[in-house]
Specification:
Protein name: AIG1-type G domain-containing protein
InterPro entries: P-loop_NTPase (IPR027417)
Number of strands: 6
Helix content: 40-55%
Order of helices and strands: EEEHEHHEHHEHH
Organism: Rhizophagus irregularis (strain DAOM 181602 / DAOM 197198 / MUCL 43194)
Strand content: 15-25%
Radius of gyration: 18 Å
Shape: globular
Number of helices: 7
Length: about 180
């Protein structure tokens, strides 16, 4: 499947186990009403899940602090129940006790973050596009590819269980559109 891009979003459609998925990645740090307006037109069929991707404990504070819009959409408009935190670059992603400990630590960060800790998925995405100089490098790529595949399956299995259309989608679209200057 092709990846389409513009200055604000990167979009990829794919199918897994008979379910079609569309992943839209917001590019950049600031989430504005204009970006949200553009986003809702990229997914007119509705939203099923919001993936809040972080690669460290402190990243979540940065993501949540992106803008007043983001906080308002998450908490006032009921999006929180549709959010999955994807904790990337977590080398112990297969160790249940390490994941549990990290989740507890994240939830202690603040009351705001604790509200989002219901759905956390732990994955590791080590690089596979590294320079191959010898057999060790080839082995590293093989191991990294396996970890990425395991992580992808963990995330997709989570989505298979949790994805359901955001019931407030139409109301949310209208609300966002009303904030965008014409």
């Amino acid at each position: 499947t092709a990846i389409s891009e513009n200055e604000n979003f990167q979009k990829k459609d794919f199918e897994w186990r008979g379910t079609k998925y569309r992943v839209v990645d917001t590019i950049g740090k600031e989430v504005t009403y204009e970006k949200m307006g553009e986003l809702i037109h990229l997914i007119p069929e509705g939203l099923n899940q919001v993936l809040l991707v972080i690669d460290g404990k402190f990243m979540i504070k940065e993501k949540i602090g992106l803008s007043e819009l983001f906080r308002k959409l998450i908490f006032e408009d009921g999006i929180a129940e549709y959010i999955t935190i994807v904790r990337t670059k977590f080398s112990n992603f297969k160790n249940e006790s390490e994941c549990k400990k990290d989740k507890e630590d994240l939830c202690k960060e603040s009351k705001t973050i604790a509200k989002l800790c219901k759905n956390i998925v732990y994955v590791d995405n080590p690089p596979i596009s590294i320079f191959v100089d010898d057999e060790d490098d080839e082995e590293t790529i093989r191991i990294n590819r396996k970890r990425r595949d395991q992580s992808r399956n963990i995330l997709l299995e989570h989505l298979e269980k949790t994805c359901h259309k955001l019931e407030k989608w139409d109301n949310l679209c209208a609300k966002i559109d009303s904030y965008i200057p014409v």
